[in-house]
Amino acid sequence: MESAHLVVEDTIRFGRHTGVTMEPRAILADYNPAEESMTVYHCGQSPHMMQGIIASRLSLDEHRVRIVARDVGGSFGIKIHTYGDEIAACALSLMLGRPVKFAADRYESFLSDIHARDHRVKAKLAVDRDGNMTALEIDDLTGVGPYSMFPRSSGVECNQILNLTGGPYKHKEYRAKGTVVFQNKNMMCQYRAVGHPIAVAVAEHMVDQAAAKLGLDPAEMRKRNLIADDAYPCKSPSGMRFEALSHHQCLDKLLALMKYDELRKEQAELRKKGVKRGIGLSSFIEVTNPSPMFYGVGGARIAAQDGCTIKLDASGAIVAATGVTEQGQGTETIMAQIAATALGVEMSCVKVLTGDTDKVPYGGGTWASRAAGIGGEAVLQAGLALKANILQAGAVILKANAADLDIADGKVVRKGTEQGITLAELARICYYRGNELPVDFQPELINPKLVEEQARGGIVQGIGGALYEQCLYDERGQLLNATMADYLVPMAAEMPDIECAHVETPTKTSMLGAKGAGEAGTGGAPAAIMNAVNDALRPLGAKVTSQPITPEVVLRALGKVR
């Protein structure tokens, strides 16, 4: 960095906050002594992981533990961990031979649900005379509570920050240090967009600071430094592998959508009138569809893959069972959509089963924006295989070649015509009138617009961390604001109008091509907000370097309060 034209450095602090789910954690354990089996109704994200944990901790055979995780009222990573009260409920049921239920109230949730985002990051960025980033250095200090959270460990957020900071940019030199310390506070662990808000906010803050020092427009600064859209696949300086991204195309679309040049002109005119308005940009990478890198982290097995069992039942309906779970993000809808598209039927014909370890294939569950990319790919492949089997059966019944048939409007038809047989009739023949089929033919009918709302919900959650939410402790480690009356979350009145647009760059590693999108807004919004606030404050010679950006923080930056 010594040879750089300009080096900017700063320290950014992030307040500790937690995921406030609509439905607090709950569990009902029911041990049956006669069958030596345990059925657990669990408000969680990864049923098969929980099955293995409960079986191993209570010395039960895994196949004798059934986890049922129906529709869950929000999770955000809070419900992928294992809490002592949940294991206690299972242990008591085993001891007593009767059902035991635990349900946390809101106060208990604030005190025991994992917290996240408590970081102090020192950063340096070096640029040359033309504004090209040459080197980035960060030093992250974070607290994790009195011990590491079971089973995923509490060091993952810090690790994500070290991996992701500065990820979209083409600088060659990168140095990162992370220090994790124990605190007399609640446990820290993975929460929606693990590490992303900190990594993105740090890098984007430094990019804006360097642009201001050089007299460059923040958008132009990013155009000069974002990895080129035709440079993939490539690796980041931290070693992250990037396969297919499109930052320049996204930035161009964003600037056009928001009418960036017009906003800058309006901003200049308003400043002449004493009105300070800020514009904030944020470029980032969201880690989705995680590989086996998470297997066994913290001592619990969690699958990196998912399966789908899909069948045409006797009534002609499609039933798809998947290992990913529903937490309100629309898993059942997207899986039904994928299955319907693969088979050529209406979504109303598809029933999706999730969350029951006795009924769905083994899988990792829902976390890290993996449901559509991994679970959806399994549904697509199973759906295409089932379609092939249906067409084979249809070919026998219609005395045609399978290659000449297709499925349309719930019927197996000859391509280009409406002549054929309904799926209901085909299913009736295959299930009940097998004698009408050739003796050597065995039908195999069993085979192993939500993105925008995910973005909006994620952005609002990011706004919470950027402007409102913070777990406040006194000097004795006592949580001071463990009620909804004292802990501020953005609600309807705080939710801005959000316009979404899309640039589609499918991954080449799957047929579906899906990437996760559930955490993007949460990861990117805090950086854009902080940059906008600082953009407004810059003419006054002030800046904020901590989140949440409360009125007090802004007034302190302006020297109005101490």
List keywords for this structure.
Aldehyde Oxidoreductase, domain 4, globular, alpha+beta, 17% strand, single chain, 20 strands, 562 residues, 3 domains, five-stranded mixed beta sheet, four-stranded mixed beta sheet
If you consult CATH, what is the topology of the largest domain? Aldehyde Oxidoreductase, domain 4
CATH architecture of the largest domain: 2-Layer Sandwich
Total number of beta strands: 20
- Stretches where pLDDT is under 50 for at least 5 consecutive residues are none
Largest sheet: 5 strands, mixed
The share of residues in extended strands comes to: 15-25%
CATH H-level superfamily title of the largest domain: Aldehyde oxidase/xanthine dehydrogenase, molybdopterin binding domain
**General form:** globular
SS element count, helices: 14
Give the % helix: 25-40%
Give your account of this protein's structure:
The chain is α+β, with helices and mostly antiparallel strands. It folds into 3 domains: 6-16 and 115-289 and 453-557, 2-Layer Sandwich (Aldehyde Oxidoreductase, domain 4); 20-112, Aldehyde Oxidoreductase, domain 4 (2-Layer Sandwich), CATH 3.30.365.10; 308-447, Aldehyde Oxidoreductase, domain 4 (2-Layer Sandwich), CATH 3.30.365.10. It is built from 14 helices and 20 strands. The longest helix has 28 residues, at 371-398.
